[in-house]
Amino acid sequence: MSSDAPSxxxxxxxxxxxxxxVAIIMDGNGRWAKxxxxxxxxxxxKGADSVRAVVKACREVGVPYLTLYAFSTENWQRxxxxxxxxxxxxxxxxxxxxxxxLTNNIRLDTxxxxxxLPEDVRQSLARVVAQTRGNDGLHLILALSYGSRDEIVxxxxxxxxxxxxxxxxxxxxxxxxxxxxxxxxDIPDPDLLIRTSGELRxxxxxxxxxxYAEFHFxxxxxPDFGREEFFRILADYQRRDRRFGxxxxxxxx
Length: 253
Ligand code: IPE
Ligand code: IPE
Ligand code: MG
Fold this sequence. Notes:
Elements: H1 8-11, E1 21-25, H2 29-35, H3 40-61, E2 65-72, H4 80-103, E3 107-111, H5 119-132, E4 139-146, H6 148-164, H7 175-180, E5 192-195, E6 214-217, H8 227-238
Parallel strand pairs: 1-2, 1-5, 2-4, 3-4, 5-6
Helix pairs in contact: 2-3, 3-4, 4-5
């Protein structure tokens, strides 16, 4: 079957009950490479194919928001060679995909301390973000140099500064105000979080925004992740009962 053929898994999904926003911790590139006695960078390169596959799958079924954790604030502590390779890969990805994003009506955005990225990567990012700003198809958000605690600290600092300057009263600080100070201010909270590679942790990702997300952990390493598994996860999500603390209504007798 060609990868463009409609997949049976996608056909089984209920279009009315799709997650509005899927967030993915793309993990396991290094282990994928190690298993093949390759350099870790090869795993990151292969991981780019999985990104393309998931972006396409979201467009196919109509998931409106997709956030991908591509580089955390903690990842700066990796060996220089690996960080450099990741930055080069990101730049390459932006160059090769820009056209694809435009023709497919995809809007690209970033969350994170992107000011810490190398100048050339920042420029490529700014260009593609500006070029795709008017697109109203899939909203693709890359988390780059992203750390959730850091994001929350900055938001709190902002609010404290406004209060100190007398522009707001502490009693008006509420969840909506804090949300509005985060990188994700214009983005709905994720409904579904997926983490690949079998690790059962958040690694400082969207701590505030994931308060009521459904979690799905899969042992698949990110470079092996593809559309079929993504659709299976969406089907599993549709079987979940999201109660948000309430009690299910009694079935009518
Ligand atoms: C995820 O894969 C990609 C990034 C964090 C940039 P890893 O590089 O963490 O792969 P593992 O976890 O070492 O296998
Ligand atoms: C989380 O993966 C960050 C990204 C996927 C970008 P890591 O591999 O960096 O996280 P830990 O080290 O397992 O917590
Ligand atoms: Mg990892």
